[in-house]
Amino acid sequence: MARTPQPLDPAREDDLLLTAARHFTASGYAGTSLNNVIAEAGWGKSSFYHYFANKRQLHDHVVQILAARLLDGVDVPDIGKLSGADFWAAMAELLDGFVRAARRHPETSYLGEMFHAPPSEDDGRLQELRGQVERWLRRAVIRGRRVGVVRDDLPEGLLIELTLTVLQTLDRWAVRHKLPASRSSGVSALFLQLVRDLIERR
Prior knowledge:
Layout: H1 10-31, H2 34-40, H3 45-51, H4 55-70, H5 87-104, H6 109-115, H7 125-146, H8 156-177, H9 181-199
């Protein structure tokens, strides 16, 4: 049975978390040496295995913690309750919330790089996160059509695929270019406008 990580000293946890995130980002899951992560973080093997059963559990923990930090203070709208009047404002606020969280937690850039890396069978929790994001975006497009603010002159499946592809491309570009915090708000507004230009009902 997989061991559940127990509470530990926040500073020591952060040392391990950031070291592991850097290695997973640079080398992927399969290419990351757990021994190197443990040593570089200043942990002993016995201490590590007291909290984590294996590399898989550490990887999933890194993804979970970084995802939680990226959601810190973010008000994710309830898709089913959005109306035509508040749909685009809610999307703008969501993007702004992510920008604010990323400013508070710059280490979440590792999650962005891991998220956009080529998928692997070793991705575990990361693949689950990709699926959750895609399902949420699909629901958002469908809701937007239902409340009359997203175009209905294209097949729903095509519209969803276009939206997902454009958003993934924009986010991947932003992650790759490591935009400074001073420019991120303006860029997020531009990205949303690009999506609206593509899918907003005229």
